[in-house]
Structures are given as C-alpha cells and as structure tokens.
Amino acid sequence: MQEKKLKIENLAMRISFLGTVGFAAAEFLIFLIAGSRAVLMDFIFDFVDVILIGPLMVLIPYLYKPASERHPYGYGQVESLFIIMKYLALVVVDISLLYDNVVTVIHGGHTINAGTVFVYEMISSIGTLAMCLVLRYLSRKYESMIIEAEIFSWKIYVYTSAGLALAFLLAIFLKSTSFAFVIPYMDPVIASVMAVVLIIRPIREIIANTRNLLLFSAPPETVEEVRAVAEEELRKYSCEISFLEVIQTGRKTWVEIYIDSESEVVILRHLHLIRDAIRERLKGKFDQYYVELIPDIPN
User: Fold this and answer.
1) What is the Cα–Cα distance from 151 to 134, expressed in whole angstroms?
2) pTM of the model
3) Residues 83-111: pLDDT tens digits?
4) Cα atoms in the 13 Å half-sphere on the side-chain side of 44
5) Is the C or the N end of the chain the one with fewer CB within 10 Å?
C-alpha cells in the first residue's frame, strides 16, 4: 500500500510540476503583452512553486522511511522545514509585490490590455479546474497531505483566475462609461487584494510547521480527539491515561500514551489489543501515525 501511495504521490507531483511550469510560462508571456501586475503576481507565485516543488519531489521517498535510532522521528521534520522555507519565500515575495502595487496606486495607476487579460484568465480558470480534477482523481484511493496541498493550491488558482476574468470584463465595459477613470487603478488594486488574500495561507502554514519542527504538542482539538478514543478503549481493560503526548512532524503523527491500571498489573496481550483498536479508530484521521502504549511506572 505504501509503495502504491508513493507512486501516486510522485505522479501527482510530476503532473502538478509540469502544469505549474506551463502556467508560469503563459503568465509571463501575458504579462509582457498586457502589462498586468495581477498576472505578474500569479507568475511569481508559480515561479517560486516551480523552484520548490523539485526538492519536494526528491524528498517524498524519504517520508516513507521508518523511524530509527539515528532518526527517531523519521524525516518528518525535514518536510516541516521545507514547507517553512517555501512559505517564507512566498511571504517575502507577497509583501514586496503588495508594496509595489500600493505605490502604483498612489502614483495614478497604469493602463493595461484588459481584453487580453480577460481571455487569458478565462482559459486559465478552465485549465486550473482541470488540474484540480486530475489531482482529485489520483487521490481518490489514498489520502495524502502533499496531494491535498497541491489540490488546495490549484483551487486558489481557479478562484483567482475566475475573479480576475470577471474584474477585467468589468474594466472592458467601463471603458465607454463615465467611470472609465477607475480603469488605471483596477489592475494594481486587484493585485493588492490578491496579495492580502494569498498571504493568509503561507502565514498559517509557517506557524503550524514551526510548531511541528520544534516538536510542540499537536493542536488542542487534535489532542482531545485522540484522548477521547484512547480513554474509551482503555476503560474496557480497567486502564486510564496518566499522560498523553501527541506530536506532529510533517505528515507523521506520534501518539504516546502513558497508562495506569486499577489492578496494577498490565497484561502485554491487552496492550496489543488496545493499541490495535486505537490505531483502527484513528485510521483516516492522519496520514502516517504511530501509537505507543507505555505503562506508567511510579518513581
């Protein structure tokens, strides 16, 4: 199963990589023709993605390697570090572009070929939707954080392309009206709004993966979900939780449960049954997860 999942992830990443390269090239060409800063914004985000997807494709096989004495958490922290670097780069680019567009608005905006941008964005929205559907088809059997992240990114491209198409269609209609004076401001304003909206996810991912990198506890809702499952299974054998630790490193989740027993005797066979039951109930909630039951030995 892991081997099939690895193949699917590699295939999905290759398709996403080639699609991103294609759209980045098209966006750069449209920017040269129409001079749209909104299209330039899309191009730079795609360009950064192209640079960073390559190392991630090399990293994927390592994410399936088991933990060892040398790497007690496997390579999960490498994934977290990579994601932090990726989104930090996007934040820096985003802020610099936002500043540039605000300066453009202050200085009176600029004129672009709205018709060319409208046609391109309509085609782009159809193409990005197709990419979403292809990746969704590939992930129908196996859940994958990497594929889900790529699908989310392509969904953002669908929404932004459709939104830009509508905005520049409006600019075309305004050209012959008394509101034509707003047209020079539309492109930098739209690009600024995109910069504000697109920066939200990178910031969230940086915060979440910094927690993972530092081996902080998982979010409270995740811990409580694991606790509820563990407590229910432990009660069947007159055991209870004395300490629970849930750590997430990239796609991997580590659950360590220290237990007390009313009889002060913990039967190994029962531990296996409890652990297997907890694993089964957590199946589908996490990508790769490990559950360990540890008798709490008093000092």
Assistant:
1) 9
2) 0.65
3) 787 788 778 877 887 888 788 888 887 77
4) 21
5) C
DSSP type of residue 67: P
Q: Which residue has the tokens 């782009």?
A: 124
| Separation of alpha carbons 190 and 37, rounded Å | 9
What is the residue whose two structure tokens read 């196996």? Answer: 142
The alpha carbon dihedral of 113, 114, 117, 118 has a sign of: negative
- 1 has pLDDT over 60: no
In this structure, the chain runs to a length of 299
According to DSSP, residue 65 is labeled: S
Contact 162, 58 (CB under 8 A): no
Distance CA(293)–CA(257), nearest Å, equals 5
How many CB atoms neighbour CB 263 within 10 A?
9
pLDDT 10s digits, 129-151: 999 899 888 877 666 667 777 78
